[in-house]
Amino acid sequence: MSSIIPSATISATSTKPATHAMQDPCMSSLPEHPKISSSLVGQKSVPASSRPQTTTTCSAPTLNCETIENKIRKNIQRSWRGILKVCKEKDVSKLGEIPVAEFLDIAEKFNLDLGEGEIKQITTKYDLKKNGRFAYYDFLQSCVLLLKPQESSLLQRVIIQKPQKPLSPGPQTTPFFSAMLRIQPQILHCWRPMKRTFKSYDESHTGLLHVADFRQVLHEYSINLTEEELFNILEYYDKTLSSKISYNDFLRAFIQ
Predict the structure, then answer these.
(1) What phi and psi, each to the nearest 5 degrees, are found at residue 125?
(2) Domain count, the chain
(3) Can you tell me the distance from the alpha carbon of 85 to that of 237, in angstroms, rounded to the nearest whole number?
(4) Which portions of the chain have biased composition (kind: Polar residues) (predicted)?
């Protein structure tokens, strides 16, 4: 599922720009310039061409686990409920994260079939706080929910049309992921007739429904959200507080 969402956030990780001045790690390998003695003032400077040159490259490779996640996606989608249950049992403080070592035990238990290098990449990506803990909600939502826009090839059949206006989502919180993951099995079972029902309520053909109508359609398909779950879903899909929700954006999160 912040933004099972739970932004997650990520994400699915985003890189935020630093908000305060930090020392450039590349500068740590450069020698310090000696202070110029006052006795040397007035002497000729050494030509730049004769000075020793120091070439330093310091760039961290971008971590991309898309190939690994695509490899295990089907396996995750079959067993994510069991994985989530075990993770929650180990997450005593309910922070949406568990020690990396415990996640590795879970991955082995559910036969995720990850190599040593793949495990290192996955655990590095989802160690969001760099504290040796694995953000399992972010990992599961990335493999189960489709909360990020993906480019589709010209040959790919479009199941659900993209909105005319691009979605500007709200925060992907753990409660949001939890709500989306809970209703995912029901949505997959009935999304086609549900889509037709959404359209029948959308008389102006805007792709948007009032919250009351949106909730009524879910209720017709025996999907009953608690007030808290509805709030967390609206916080993501109705960031501007328009009291309307794009039902295509909502369904697209479950259809991959």
Answers:
(1) -65, -45
(2) 2
(3) 26
(4) 36-57
Is residue 239 included in any domain, yes or no? Answer: yes
Given a cut of 70, whether residue 12 has pLDDT beyond it is no
- Report the CATH number at residue 85: 1.10.238.10
Beta bridge partners of 99: 133
Same domain, 74 and 139: yes
Co-location of 70 and 121 in the same domain? yes
CA distance 183 to 194: 13
Q: Are 132 and 75 contained in the same domain?
A: yes
Task: Tell me, yes or no, whether 2 lies in a domain.
Answer: no
Both 131 and 197 in a single domain? no
The pLDDT of residue 78 is above 60: yes
- Report the 10 Å Cβ neighbour count for 229: 17
Answer for the pair 29, 58: CB distance below 8 angstroms, yes or no: yes
Give CA–CA dist 3/138, Å, rounded: 8
State the burial class of residue 228 (Cβ atoms within 10 Å of its Cβ: 0-12, 13-18, 19+).
Answer: exposed
Whole-angstrom Cα Rg for the chain: 25
| DSSP element (H, E) containing 209 | strand 208-210
Distance CA 26, CA 240 (A): 41
pLDDT tens digits for range 89-148? 999 988 889 999 999 999 999 988 888 899 999 999 999 999 999 999 889 888 888 765
| Rounded Cα gap, residues 86 and 70, in angstroms | 22
